[in-house]
Amino acid sequence: MSKVTVVGAGKYGSTTAQRLAEADIADEVVMTDIVDGLPQGLALDMNQSRPILGYRTKVVGTNDYTDTAGSDVVVITAGFPRKPGMSRMDLLEKNASIVAGVTRDIATQSPDAVLIVVTNPLDQMTTLAADVSGFPRSRVMGQAGMLDSARFAHFISETAGVDILDVEAVTLGSHGPTMVPVPSLCRVGAKPLTEAMDAETIDELIERTRKGGAEIVAYLKTGSAYYAPSAAATAMVRAVVEDSGDVMPVCAWMTGEYGISGVYLGVLAAIGAGGVRGVVEAELTPSEREGLVAAADAVKEKVADLDAIEV
Ligand code: APR
Questions:
Q1: Considering Cα of 198, then 206, then 275, then 18, what sign does the dihedral take?
Q2: Cβ atoms within 10 A of the Cβ of 239, count?
Q3: Can you tell me the distance from the alpha carbon of 236 to that of 250, in angstroms, rounded to the nearest whole number?
Q4: Which pLDDT does position 311 carry in this prediction?
Q5: How far is the CA of 282 from the centre of ligand 1 (A)?
C-alpha cells in the first residue's frame, strides 16, 4: 500500500483522484491545488461516496505541499487545458512555469517518488519535470500513449462493430500530429487489424485518433477531455503501486531503443515500483519504425523551445 499525490484538482486531477480512491490501491490519495478550498471540498465530497461504493481509500485535499511528503507516486495535472483552436504549443509557455514550480515542491517533499506527468504539451512538460526534479529519468514518465491507444481502440470497435474488449490497439510516438499508430500490433478479435479493415478505413481512424483530443475540445468549448485520460493515468499509477511490470504505452526516456536516444517518446514500457523498468522494443514494420524516428526528431525540436523559456 502506498501514498499517491495528484497535483491539480481540476477536471483531470479530481477525476484521477476519485478513480484512484475507488480502485482502493493506496493507503492515501492526496490532492493539491493552488486554489484555496477546491481540493478540500472535492475530497470531502469524494470521501462521502465511500460507504455507497464500498472502498476505504481516503482523499486528502490540501494546498500545502508538506501534506504530500513521502509520496510514492505523484501525478502532475496542474496547468491549463487547451482552448478550442489552441495548439499544444500555445500552451507551452503557460504550463511550463506551473509544472516547473510544482515539480520543485514535489521533488523537495517526495525525493523518491515516481512522477507521472499529464499536463500538455506532454513531451515538453515531461522533459521539464525530469530536468527540474533531477530525478533519474526512469522515475519520470508521461501519459499519452495509453490514452491515444484507448481512443484508437474505441474507434476501431465502433467501426468494426466488435466488442471493445475484443480490440487491442497500440499507438506510439508523440501525442498529436506525430502520434505513430501501429496497425501491425493491433488486433480485432483474433484477427490482425490489417485483415479486419481496408487500409483506407484504418487511415481514417488513425486520423481521427490523432485529432481525438481536439474533437472533444470542440464539443466541450471550455476544457479538454478527462474521463479516458484519468483512466489512463490511474492504470499507470496502479502498475507502479503494485509493482506489476505491466507493459503499457507511456512517454519514456529513450536510451538507444529503436536506435533512438536522449528524448522522451511514446513507447511500450514495463512499469513497476521504480517507474520505467525498461522500454520494450516491439517488432515494427519499416514504415512504423520510420514514423517513430520522425516523431523522436519532432519531439527533440519541440523540446528545444523550452530553452527559450525562463522557468
Ligand atoms: N499548482 C497547483 N495547481 C495548479 C497550479 C499550480 N501552480 N496552477 C494551476 N493549477 C490548477 C488549477 O487551479 C486547476 O484546478 O490546475 C487545475 C487544472 O484544472 P483544469 O483547468 O480543469 O484542467 P484539466 O482538464 O484538469 O487539465 C489539466 O491536463 O490534459 C491536460 O491539457 C490538459 O494541461 C492540461 C492538464
A1: negative
A2: 24
A3: 8
A4: 83
A5: 33
Tell me the average pLDDT across 102-125. 97
Structural domains in the chain (count): 2
Phi and psi torsions of 284, nearest 5°: -110, 155
Average pLDDT over residues 58-69: 98
Whether 119 and 187 share a structural domain: no
Are residues 175 and 41 part of one domain?
A: no
Q: Are residues 114 and 260 in the same domain?
A: no
pTM here is 0.97
**Cβ of 118 below 6 Å from ligand 1:** yes
* Residues of the domain holding 280: 145-307
Ligand 1 atom nearest to 14, measured from its CA: 26
Active site residues: 175
Ligand 1 atom closest to the CA of 98, numbered from 1: 7
Q: Specify whether 200 is located in the same domain as 114.
A: no
Indicate if the pLDDT at residue 88 is higher than 80. no
Mean pLDDT of the chain: 95
pLDDT of residue 1: 67
Do 170 and 102 share a structural domain? no
The pLDDT of residue 46: 98
Q: Tell how far the Cα of 100 is from the centroid of ligand 1, in angstroms.
A: 13
Q: What is the pLDDT of residue 303?
A: 92
Decide: 24 and 8 in contact? Cβ < 8 Å: no
Q: Domain check: are 73 and 86 in the same one?
A: yes
Which tops the pLDDT comparison, 1 or 124? 124
Verify whether ligand 1 is closer than 6 Å to residue 121 (CB atom).
no
233: domain CATH number? 3.90.110.10
Q: Which of 7, 34, 151, 311 to mutate to test the pocket of ligand 1 (most atoms within 8 A of CB)?
A: 34
135 with 191, same domain: the answer is no
The dihedral over CA atoms of 19, 21, 27, 29, expressed in degrees to the nearest 10, equals 80
Task: Write the CATH number for 113.
Answer: 3.40.50.720
For residue 164, how far is its CA from the centre of ligand 1 (angstroms)?
30
Listed residue (238, 228, 241, 252) closest to 169, CA to CA: 228
Query: Would you place residue 310 in the very low, low, confident or very high pLDDT band (cuts 50, 70, 90)?
Result: confident
Q: Which of 38, 63, 80 to mutate to test the pocket of ligand 1 (most atoms within 8 A of CB)?
A: 80
